Amino acid sequence: MNEVDEYIKSFPAEVQERLIEIRNIIHELAPQATERICMRMPTYDLNGRWLVHFAGFKNHIGFYPQPEGIEAFKEKLSGYKTSKGTVQFPHNKPLPIDLIREIVRFRVNEQSK
After folding, report:
1. What is the CATH number of the domain that holds 21?
2. What's the average pLDDT block by block, 10 residues per block, for the chain (113 residues)?
3. How many domains does the chain divide into?
């Protein structure tokens, strides 16, 4: 078991499922990204730069696609709490899987330039 597995297992089962869904999307769309814990959260690096991070919290999942990822999807993220480089996906709403896929794909394309 690696450190990201341990991180995910530290959450209640329903939160683990949500974290695993995000992790699987990242692995699918960025199979060449490296996975590690940085700043106490799962972090994915691509071409020597941060791709995305995510983190579990009591009431939400924090997803960190860097400021470029937030800015590019500002309209689609309007129903969520955001800041410069973060969006919060509350546990009481379904994960926006298609949107997460779009954001990760966008970030992979950015990192590949």
Report:
1. 3.90.1150.200
2. 94 97 97 95 94 97 97 96 96 97 96 80
3. 1
